Structures are given as structure tokens and as C-alpha cells.
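Field guide to reading this record: the first block holds the primary sequence, the second block holds the structure written as C-alpha cells, and the final block holds curator observations. Each block starts with its own label. This record concerns Pyrin domain-containing protein, catalogued under organism Hymenochirus boettgeri.

BLOCK 1 — SEQUENCE
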Amino acid sequence: MVKTVRDALVDALDNLSKEAFKKFKEKLNDPGAQDRIPWGQLQDADTGDVATKMIRFYTESMAITVTIQVLEGIKELDAIKKLQESLTDNARPPIAILQPTSQSQAERPERREHSAARNPDTNEQYMETEEWPCLR
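BLOCK 2 — STRUCTURE
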């Protein structure tokens, strides 16, 4: 079975000592960090909770990057190596090669424009369609 990004993050965090995991959470919430998960959400969180919160807060790819940066910051270089190996061994195919299974592009309903306007704040023109609004 292929590991998910969350599985790889949990494994990496599980391999940290209790003290190193505490440092990880503190560094993750470092006031110097641009985007940080609030301490109240991290304080009592276990490894699975931290991994889930990181993916929800940052996205999967950014959670990996942030994890590596934090592990570097707390000098857990062995954990970085194991995380990278885990992710490499279980690489998933890029999304670009996946094919849609529901409708082919030719079968999809045509989007029809029904209004056009400009955003008064940015002066950008956008077209609203029956399915969704999109910027032009």
C-alpha cells in the first residue's frame, strides 16, 4: 500500500523523542514564522493531529517543506533523511497524468456567459457563468 503524505509526516514525527517533538511544535509556532498554526491547536496535539493540521493549514506539498525546515531548525537531520526517503519510495504519479473518469471534455456542458462586470476595488473584469464566476 502506498503511503500518503500524512502517513510519511506521522512516521517522521513518531520517530522524534518526546523532547524533540515538543521542540518541533514550538518551532512550528515560532513568532518569526510568516504563517503559523495557533499554539492552542498544537499544544496538546499528538503526531497524527499535528500532521493533519499542517496539511489542512499549508497543503500537502507545503506541509512537507515546512516539516523539513522545522526539522532543520531543531537539528533533526536524521528525521529529514528518513522523511525524504519515505516520500521518494512512495511517490505518487503527478496529477497531470491522471485522466478524468466521469465525463470527457467533449461531453461536458458548455459554459454560457450571462453577465460581465468590473470589480470596483481592482477594476478587473470578470465574467460570471452558470457554473462559476471566473476572472478575465
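BLOCK 3 — OBSERVATIONS
Residues 60-73 form the longest helix (14 residues).
Confidence is low (pLDDT under 50) at residues 93-106, 108-115, 127-136.
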